[in-house]
Amino acid sequence: MIRNSASEMAAKLAAGETTSVALTQAHLDRITAVDADVHAFLYVDTEGALAQAAAVDAKRAKGEKLSPLAGVPLALKDVMAQKGVPTTCGSKILEGWRPPYDSTVVANLKKNDVVILGKTNMDEFAMGSSTENSAYGPTHNPWDLTRIPGGSGGGSSAALAAFEAPLAIGTDTGGSIRQPAAVTGTVGVKPTYGGVSRFGLVAFSSSLDQAGPCARTVLDTALLHEAIAGHDPKDATSINAPVPNVVAAAKSGDVKGMKIGVVKELNGDGYQPGVRARFEESLELLAKAGAEIVEVSAPNFEYALAAYYLIAPSECSSNLARFDAMRYGLRVGDVDGASAETVMNLTREVGFGKEVKRRIILGTYALSSGYYDAYYGSAQKVRTLITQDFTKAFEKADVLVSPTCPTTAFKIGEKANDPLAMYLNDIATIPVNLAGIGGMSLPSGLADEDGLPVGFQIMSPVMKDERMYSVGAALEAALLSKWGAPLLDKAPVLAGAR
Amino acid sequence: MSSLSRDDVAKLAGLARIEMSEEELVNLANEFTVILDAVARVQEVAGADVEPTSHPLPLRNVFRADVVVPSLTPEEALSGAPAQEEQRFRVPQILGEE
């Protein structure tokens, strides 16, 4: 049952073939069996999940009309506030904090009766591409436990690939939903910026952060997208417009006559041969399905990484100032006579990890007087150029595509001491965040040289999120008929499950 | 080529309110030489005629009706406080002695 898609689980629940309590318990048992090896979860809310499941079952027994995903379990990235449930963001500075309120995403999940199993591991404050920056230890990729599951949302992607949950929530500031999806053979979507409320999403870089849905199929991702999206008065940057019709697009999967633009700059040198081979193959399948493949150029994308590593640290140096040891979270050195400033200094030294400190210092530098124009100011101008590149490209194509990442999953520890090599992982995902458009990653097969999953990225214009679901569903269907079974059937059996 | 000295990093860490060991200061200064070289590339393309983008949405002020809605109780607001007193956050000394 746990290997079903969320839609299949929902159908069984609706038909009375199983209950949400049974389904939730099956996933809790799976977590108990394999999570010692995978370490996808930071906190498992056994009681809360079972109580929520029992409540859905009771509603269903009374014949209440329920949402499409009612009773299906989900894994929540630990950057999302959930009332009464520990929320750490993978950081020591928030250890033990239990938010007194629900984020809007959580409120929407509860309204849709989606059962929240627990909180998933992540790079501290979502800064990283491997989940190695978690203060609570790394998550392991279910395809090969010695490898990273991507980051920052490696806990959510690993939970899906290990069948610990059929649905998950991620957040994507520079690729933190899409890159983990790519390296674990799962699906992840960064909606248009403003499509999903950021209220209660602990801020890293406010102009880039976007929460989104993760699952094992395109349709499940669309159903979750629809459940969490929509205008929220609590988030001033939330878009006040109808949610794009992503579920209908995922169901039809029609790409006939669509123009698909291959971004010339997001391929070639630096991309692993197996990544390129799977990408070319996917393009052929989309052409066979009736799409027209065109090439587009985005000359300023080569500056995206540099701009991102100024903008995101600048915003984070400001956002993370809230962790001041005064109102919540860790407090260190509060002895008689110690000043507030000393307590802040000591708390932030102990509470923040290496990468978070690195980015706060970089951001502080980029924003400091005398350097502001040269660094932060120039980065903002590059952001304009990148947005213009997208606008021009979307005049020639309905969606744009590229490999999601240059490589498959690397070994845990391999890039831990080389920040620049780590940052390069996000080279193809970052432009999407800078422009605020939508992006999806879905599995396109395994690289021949290492047998590890490869991701295919689809990018759609602002609030045209349905387009990436049409293309994603078409490609997924074509690949499924080629493979004969879902890609995750090829993943090794985890020891705990034997 | 941009670079930061150990003392530059110490000054930034002070501004960012993070205590740092000697080892951390030296390591960061070394790393920054490489990182700043990489990010300084943004200066190569951006001409004076390009407008900066601070945010992906063209937003101005966003208003809502001024309606009273339920909010956190004092107990909820203080539930995560490291220290509290008389329904307030208790904080370390903020003003100097003199």
How would you describe the overall organization of this protein?
The complex is a heterodimer of chains A (498) and B (98). With 498 residues, chain A is an alpha/beta fold. Chain A has one domain: Amidase signature (AS) domain (Amidase signature (AS) enzymes, Alpha-Beta Complex), CATH 3.90.1300. In chain A, 40% of the residues lie in helices and 12% in strands. Chain A contains 16 helices and 11 strands. An 11-stranded mixed beta sheet of chain A has the order 1-3-2-4-6-5-10-11-9-7-8, sandwiched between helices. In chain A, strand 7, helix 9 (273-288) and strand 8 form a beta-alpha-beta unit. The longest helix of chain A is centred in the C-terminal third of the chain and has 24 residues, at 373-396. Chain A is globular, with a radius of gyration of 21 Å. The relative contact order of chain A is 0.14. Chain B is mainly α and 98 residues long. Chain B has a domain at 1-46: Orthogonal Bundle (Histone, subunit A), CATH 1.10.20. Helix content of chain B is 37%, strand content 4%. Chain B has helices spanning 6-15, 22-39, 42-45, 74-77, and strands at residues 84-85, 88-89. Chain B has a two-stranded antiparallel ribbon. Chain B is flat. The model of chain B has no long low-confidence stretch (mean pLDDT 91). At the A-B interface, helix 10, helix 11, helix 12, helix 13 and helix 14 of A face helix 1, helix 2 and helix 3 of B.
